[in-house]
Amino acid sequence: MPKEKIGVLCSGRGSNLASIIDAVERGDIHAEIAVVLADKADAYALTRAQEHGIPAVAVVRKAYAEREDFERALLEQLHAHGVTLVVLAGFMRILSPLFVRAYAGRILNIHPALLPSFPGAHAHRDALAYGVKVSGCTVHFVDEGTDSGPIILQAAVPVAEGDTEDSLAARVLKEEHRIFPAAIRLYVDGRLRTDGRQVHILPPAEGGAL
């Protein structure tokens, strides 16, 4: 059975990308990272990829007048590298139906809140403003909405008295680095079955690891 080929989309420093690269290199995820794409030429994620011998390409949003043209350029790169699974690791753009339909059921995202609470770009700010006692992170399939796809894994993080956006984000990020590779592994191992909004985690194959 051929390995899944992962394409990772990033916008910034790529700390979640680093956790995924580590998991692949350890053999925890039986897949190949085929390409890393960033929407900013100075995204440090590109450097992280290059340091590990992974093809890294900047597809700069500002170079395209229309979002559809930008997304077609992303898709062109993904197809050129044979990508079968798209992973959004700190990719700070909402994808249109054009992109989502091209990889329907094959796009994973991590969001720094316990969805469906606090979707969007300011999850930590919104969680603190609301006064929640527990926040966390969510790995989910991407659909045509915003942070609205079926949930794969979640991790809870208590909100401490006096937390700031930065202090909460730092603790949540540790959990992101744990559950994102775990969710990718479940997908790659064929252990996810989606039934409407429900994502069922199947037992490992006989002789396989948990």
Total strands: the figure is 9
Distance between the termini: 20 Å
Note the main sheet. 7 strands, mixed
Tell me the count of domains. 1
Return the structural class.
alpha/beta
Strand order of the largest sheet: 3-2-1-4-5-6-7
CATH topology heading = Rossmann fold
CATH class division: Alpha Beta
- The CATH architecture name reads 3-Layer(aba) Sandwich
Lay out the secondary structure.
Elements: E1 4-10, H1 15-26, E2 31-38, H2 44-51, E3 56-58, H3 67-80, E4 85-88, H4 97-102, E5 107-111, H5 123-130, E6 134-141, E7 151-158, H6 165-188, E8 192-195, E9 198-201
Parallel strand pairs: 1-2, 1-4, 2-3, 4-5
Antiparallel strand pairs: 5-6, 6-7, 8-9
Helix pairs in contact: 1-6
Q: Could you explain how this protein is built, in words?
A:
With 210 residues, the chain is α/β, with parallel strands linked by helices. The chain has one domain: Formyl transferase, N-terminal domain (Rossmann fold). 34% of the residues lie in helices and 24% in strands. The protein has helices spanning 15-26, 44-51, 67-80, 97-102, 123-130, 165-188; strands at 4-10, 31-38, 56-58, 85-88, 107-111, 134-141, 151-158, 192-195, 198-201. Strands 3-2-1-4-5-6-7 form a seven-stranded mixed beta sheet, with helices on both faces.
